[in-house]
């Protein structure tokens, strides 16, 4: 039997240490830093793997802070891939994981032989954050929920949300203008914070539709709940601690109870609505679809698992979690790379002005014509995929690419490493070059499965259409109204805290295009 490729690599102990204690704990990172700092001196080489642009832009070097050390931990697989080839064993705490970065094998795992592999069950702390919805469900219940919820994300449905999302972006842009310094006409904005307003609004409309205001109140409570959960996630993990009646735990339980109470009231109100009201030309929202599915459950010949109030609560958590931060990270990285590459910024702006004009909120048909912007978004998703990896578990003993994989083996698909593999993307794999997507996604790399920011197969991201539409709309509106560049305060430090985000935020300097028409403006 071929043995797994065991890699004696300096990175293993770090991964091992950090993952033992919940992945991001400060204590673990301190241990990590003590062991690894003398060996690494500086983390810059790893960042260079992430983006060659850093060197070009002479961005400030930084000290090796604990969180920055996490970057190295998170990109261990990237380095292992480059050192060893595309299939290797890596330790995640006491558990071995087979990292698979070969696109043919990834295709087998996620698509052609997906029945042999299940989604990996997240840690309870993570599940608390992501909810027990679509992301973590499996088997028949997952299939039922996916079928029920899919219509929300059909393009015909989503395009009805565009004017609302567009209005939120325009309001945000107008606020930036009022914040500008009257002398210079410029304003510095940390886009990583502001974009969350846009994505929260979009997900609230998608989930609650015409009950938007009630939905906002629910998601506000959920934000507080998630703040508690993510704080706990960053601390040392003590099994069972989350069940103790500490001050924070009791506050979390109270919030959870309140969310359920609000949703039950909302569901009751929606159920009382007449059919006429339900069909008032509103977009199909997640809440409405789930309520219908719970009441239609009895009409199905073989009801799988009727959707309960608890299911609705958990799906709301899941969609809020899966839909908000991912898309705001994409928006943040897109703005950062456009600020780094003024020539692409200008090309994208000219296209937007030609297709959509200088002021109007772009409609679905216009967005579809923004080819350059589409290429830029793809290239951003390639270099900075918000979800850096995904994990599967073998359901039985299987042979994959000549390896005998025992049942229950975890398989890590390092999306970010695949996206940076020079064997697939060519020698400029670490460079920002949207032109590689000019002939479509399938032809951008040497393998059609080399680009998987939204996963692949049956469990591919259900929110992909919404994310891309929202991102295109938001960036188009910003390009119509502003020219922008990186703030000198910006530090290029992509780091992973569940998702890939800029460790020190993303301060960008915006200048309104109406004020920058003066002859002496410099960008
Ligand atoms: C740029 C934005 C986004 C990225 C990069 C992204 C990425 C992903 C990836 C990689 C997966 C597959 C995970 C796996 O195979 O294990 C996934 C699944 C999922 N995503 Fe997204 N996502 C994004 C936006 C959204 C949005 C806006 C929503 C909801 C409104 C959403 C909801 C979900 C859900 C519910 C799943 C689980 C699907 C299932 O298992 O059936 N995502 N996403």
TrEMBL record:
<dbReference type="GO" id="GO:0004497">
    <property type="term" value="F:monooxygenase activity"/>
</dbReference>
<dbReference type="InterPro" id="IPR001128">
    <property type="entry name" value="Cyt_P450"/>
</dbReference>
<feature type="binding site" description="axial binding residue">
    <location>
        <position position="461"/>
    </location>
    <ligand>
        <name>heme</name>
    </ligand>
</feature>
<dbReference type="GO" id="GO:0016020">
    <property type="term" value="C:membrane"/>
</dbReference>
<keyword id="KW-0732">Signal</keyword>
<keyword id="KW-1133">Transmembrane helix</keyword>
<keyword id="KW-0503">Monooxygenase</keyword>
<keyword id="KW-0812">Transmembrane</keyword>
<keyword id="KW-0560">Oxidoreductase</keyword>
<feature type="transmembrane region" description="Helical">
    <location>
        <begin position="19"/>
        <end position="39"/>
    </location>
</feature>
<comment type="similarity">
    <text>Belongs to the cytochrome P450 family.</text>
</comment>
<keyword id="KW-0472">Membrane</keyword>
<keyword id="KW-0479">Metal-binding</keyword>
<keyword id="KW-0408">Iron</keyword>
<dbReference type="GO" id="GO:0005506">
    <property type="term" value="F:iron ion binding"/>
</dbReference>
<dbReference type="GO" id="GO:0016131">
    <property type="term" value="P:brassinosteroid metabolic process"/>
</dbReference>
<dbReference type="InterPro" id="IPR050665">
    <property type="entry name" value="Cytochrome_P450_Monooxygen"/>
</dbReference>
<dbReference type="InterPro" id="IPR036396">
    <property type="entry name" value="Cyt_P450_sf"/>
</dbReference>
<dbReference type="InterPro" id="IPR017972">
    <property type="entry name" value="Cyt_P450_CS"/>
</dbReference>
<dbReference type="InterPro" id="IPR002401">
    <property type="entry name" value="Cyt_P450_E_grp-I"/>
</dbReference>
<dbReference type="GO" id="GO:0016705">
    <property type="term" value="F:oxidoreductase activity, acting on paired donors, with incorporation or reduction of molecular oxygen"/>
</dbReference>
<protein>
    <recommendedName>
        <fullName>Cytochrome P450</fullName>
    </recommendedName>
</protein>
<keyword id="KW-0349">Heme</keyword>
<dbReference type="GO" id="GO:0020037">
    <property type="term" value="F:heme binding"/>
</dbReference>
<dbReference type="Pfam" id="PF00067">
    <property type="entry name" value="p450"/>
</dbReference>
<feature type="transmembrane region" description="Helical">
    <location>
        <begin position="67"/>
        <end position="92"/>
    </location>
</feature>
<dbReference type="GO" id="GO:0010268">
    <property type="term" value="P:brassinosteroid homeostasis"/>
</dbReference>
């Amino acid at each position: 039997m071929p043995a797994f490729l065991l890699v004696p690599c300096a990175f293993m102990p770090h991964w091992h240490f950090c993952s033992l204690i919940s992945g991001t704990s400060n204590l673990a990172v301190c241990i990590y830093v003590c062991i690894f700092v003398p060996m690494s001196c500086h983390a810059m080489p790893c960042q260079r793997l992430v983006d060659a642009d850093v060197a070009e832009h002479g961005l400030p070097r930084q000290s090796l802070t604990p969180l920055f050390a996490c970057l190295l931990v998170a990109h261990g697989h990237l380095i292992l891939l480059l050192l060893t080839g595309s299939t290797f064993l890596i330790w995640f705490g006491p558990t071995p994981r087979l990292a698979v970065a070969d696109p043919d094998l990834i295709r087998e795992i996620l698509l052609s032989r997906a029945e042999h592999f299940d989604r990996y069950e997240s840690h309870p702390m993570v599940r608390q954050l992501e909810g027990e919805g679509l992301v973590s469900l499996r088997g028949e219940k997952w299939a039922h929920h996916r079928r029920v919820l899919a219509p929300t994300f059909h393009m015909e449905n989503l395009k009805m949300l565009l004017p609302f999302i567009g209005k939120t972006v325009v309001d945000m842009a107008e606020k930036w203008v009022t914040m500008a310094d009257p002398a210079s006409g410029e304003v510095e904005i940390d886009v990583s914070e502001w974009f969350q307003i846009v994505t929260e609004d979009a997900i609230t409309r998608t989930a609650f539709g015409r009950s938007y205001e009630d939905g906002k109140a629910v998601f506000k409570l959920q934000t507080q709940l998630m703040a508690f959960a993510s704080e706990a996630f960053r601390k040392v993990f003590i099994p069972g601690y989350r069940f103790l009646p500490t001050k924070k735990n009791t506050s979390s339980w109270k919030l959870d109870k309140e969310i359920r109470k609000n949703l039950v009231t909302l569901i009751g109100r929606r159920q009382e609505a007449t059919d006429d009201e339900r069909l008032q030309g509103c977009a199909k929202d997640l809440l409405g679809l789930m309520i219908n599915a719970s009441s239609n459950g009895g009409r199905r010949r073989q009801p799988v698992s009727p959707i309960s109030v608890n299911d609705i609560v958990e799906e709301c958590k899941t969609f809020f979690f899966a839909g908000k931060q991912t898309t705001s990270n994409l928006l943040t990285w897109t703005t950062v790379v456009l600020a780094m590459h003024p020539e692409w910024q200008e090309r994208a702006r000219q296209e937007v002005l030609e297709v959509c004009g200088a002021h109007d909120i772009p409609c679905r048909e216009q967005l579809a014509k923004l080819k350059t912007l589409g290429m830029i978004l793809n290239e951003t998703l390639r270099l900075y995929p918000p979800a850096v990896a995904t994990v599967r578990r073998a359901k039985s003993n299987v042979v994959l690419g000549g390896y005998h994989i025992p049942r229950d083996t975890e398989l890590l698909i390092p999306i970010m490493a695949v996206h940076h593999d020079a064997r697939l993307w060519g020698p400029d794999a670490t460079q920002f070059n949207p032109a590689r997507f000019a002939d479509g996604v399938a032809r951008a790399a040497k393998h059609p499965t080399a680009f998987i920011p939204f996963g692949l197969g049956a469990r591919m991201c259900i929110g992909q259409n919404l994310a891309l539409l929202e991102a295109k709309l938001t960036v188009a509106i910003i390009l119509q109204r502003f020219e922008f560049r990186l703030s000198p305060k910006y530090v290029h430090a992509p780091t992973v805290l569940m998702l890939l985000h800029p460790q020190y935020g993303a301060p960008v300097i915006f200048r309104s295009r109406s004020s920058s028409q003066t002859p002496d403006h410099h960008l």
